[in-house]
C-alpha cells in the first residue's frame, strides 16, 4: 500500500516535470511575441510625425500648421496608458482654429523611447514639453495647453513652473483639462493599475504577461456603454503600448499615482491660485474620476474655472467618445477670452 502510494507520487511528480518542460518553451515564446503591426492609420500618424532628442532619448511629436496668419498655438498632452494618437479625432478641427497644433508622446509612451530601468516622473515629462517647445523655437510664445488624464498632471507641473517664473518655463495663455485625476482623494485607479503600481516583485511578471486580451478587458470599462472603442481602435492603442516594449515599463510609469499624492499641495495649489483662463471638459460617467464627488471638489477648489459637462453616457476618454462635443466645448472656451 505504502509502496503503491510512493509510486503514484513519483509518477505525479514526473508528470508535472514533463508539463513544466513543455510549458517553458511555450511561455518563453509567448513572452517574446513581437508587437502587432501598425494599422495604416497609425502608420500614417507615425510617418507624418517627427522625433527630437531629449538627453539622448528620442521623443515623438506631431506639429501641424493650421490657420495662416493666426498667432495661436495649442499643445496637447495625452493620458495614460495611450499616446498622442488619442487626439486624432479632433486634430483637423483644431487646425481650423490654431496656427500650430502640437502633440507629443511622453517618454515611455507611444512611439517615444521607453528606457528601462528608468525613474519616470511628472517632473521629467514637464521638462520634455519645455524642451520640445525650445526645439521648435516657440519657448517665448504664449501657449494654450489642452490635456487629458496623465497629461492633466503634467499640465499642473507646467502651471506651477509658470507661476513661479521658473527659468525655461512655458508662458501659458490658457489651460483646458479633461477627465484627469488631479485630486488624489477622488481618483479611483483600475484594479490592474493598483496591482502594477504596488505589485513589487510581481510587477515585472505581470507586465510581461500582459496581452491584448488583458489590456482590452481592462481599458474598455472606462469608456461609456455606447461609445466603447472598436477592436481595431483597441489594437491601435495596444500597438502604441507594445512599441519599444512599452508594456514592460507600465509599472514604472504608474508611479505617477504615488507622485501625485506626494506633491498634491504643489500641483493642486498651482490650480487653486490660477489667474489665466482655465476650463474643464468632463465626461460624467467616468469611473476613474466619479461624478459627483470629483466635480464638487473641482468647483470648490477652482471657483473661477468654467466647466463643460458632456452627455451623460460619455466617460473617461471624451475626446475619443464624443469628439464633436469635446471640440465644441473647447472652442467655446477658447473663443470666450
TrEMBL record:
Residues 73-323 form the AB hydrolase-1 domain. The keyword Endoplasmic reticulum applies. The keyword Phosphoprotein does not apply. GO terms for biological process: acylglycerol catabolic process. It is a multi-pass membrane protein. GO terms for cellular component: endoplasmic reticulum membrane. It is found in: Endoplasmic reticulum membrane. GO terms for molecular function: monoacylglycerol lipase activity. InterPro entries: AB_hydrolase_1, AB_hydrolase_fold, AB_hydrolase_sf, Epox_hydrolase-like. It comes from the Eukaryota. Pfam families: Abhydrolase_1 (PF00561). Keywords: Endoplasmic reticulum, Hydrolase, Membrane, Transmembrane, Transmembrane helix. Belongs to the AB hydrolase superfamily. PANTHER family: HYDROLASE, PUTATIVE (AFU_ORTHOLOGUE AFUA_2G14860)-RELATED, MONOACYLGLYCEROL LIPASE. This is AB hydrolase-1 domain-containing protein. It comes from Saimiri boliviensis boliviensis.
Amino acid at each position: 500500500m505504502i509502496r503503491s502510494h510512493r509510486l503514484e507520487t513519483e509518477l505525479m511528480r514526473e508528470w508535472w516535470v514533463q508539463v513544466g518542460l513543455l510549458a517553458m518553451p511555450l511561455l518563453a515564446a509567448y513572452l517574446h511575441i513581437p508587437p502587432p503591426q501598425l494599422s495604416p492609420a497609425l502608420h500614417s500618424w507615425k510617418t507624418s510625425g517627427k522625433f527630437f532628442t531629449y538627453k539622448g532619448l528620442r521623443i515623438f511629436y506631431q506639429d501641424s500648421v493650421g490657420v495662416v496668419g493666426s498667432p495661436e498655438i495649442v499643445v496637447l498632452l495625452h493620458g495614460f496608458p495611450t499616446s498622442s494618437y488619442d487626439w486624432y479625432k479632433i486634430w483637423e478641427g483644431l487646425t481650423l482654429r490654431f496656427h500650430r497644433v502640437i502633440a507629443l508622446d511622453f517618454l515611455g509612451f507611444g512611439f517615444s523611447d521607453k528606457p528601462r530601468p528608468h525613474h519616470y516622473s511628472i517632473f521629467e515629462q514637464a521638462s520634455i514639453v519645455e524642451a520640445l517647445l525650445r526645439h521648435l523655437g516657440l519657448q517665448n510664445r504664449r501657449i494654450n495647453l489642452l490635456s487629458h488624464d496623465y497629461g492633466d498632471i503634467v499640465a499642473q507641473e507646467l502651471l506651477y513652473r509658470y507661476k513661479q517664473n521658473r527659468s525655461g518655463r512655458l508662458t501659458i495663455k490658457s489651460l483646458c483639462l479633461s477627465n484627469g485625476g488631479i485630486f488624489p482623494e477622488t481618483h479611483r485607479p483600475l484594479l490592474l493599475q493598483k496591482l502594477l503600481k504596488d505589485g513589487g516583485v510581481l510587477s515585472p511578471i505581470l507586465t510581461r504577461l500582459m496581452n491584448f486580451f488583458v489590456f482590452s478587458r481592462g481599458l474598455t470599462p472606462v469608456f461609456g456603454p455606447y461609445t466603447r472603442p472598436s477592436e481595431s481602435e483597441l489594437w491601435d492603442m495596444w500597438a502604441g503600448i507594445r512599441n519599444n516594449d512599452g508594456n514592460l515599463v507600465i509599472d514604472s510609469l504608474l508611479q505617477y499615482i504615488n507622485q501625485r499624492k506626494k506633491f498634491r499641495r504643489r500641483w493642486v495649489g498651482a490650480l487653486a491660485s490660477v489667474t489665466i483662463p482655465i476650463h474643464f471638459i468632463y465626461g460624467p460617467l467616468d469611473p476613474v474620476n466619479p461624478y459627483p464627488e470629483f466635480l464638487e471638489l473641482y468647483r470648490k477648489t477652482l471657483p473661477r474655472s468654467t466647466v463643460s459637462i458632456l452627455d451623460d453616457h460619455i466617460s473617461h476618454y471624451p475626446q475619443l467618445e464624443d469628439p464633436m462635443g469635446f471640440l465644441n466645448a473647447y472652442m467655446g472656451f477658447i473663443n470666450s477670452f
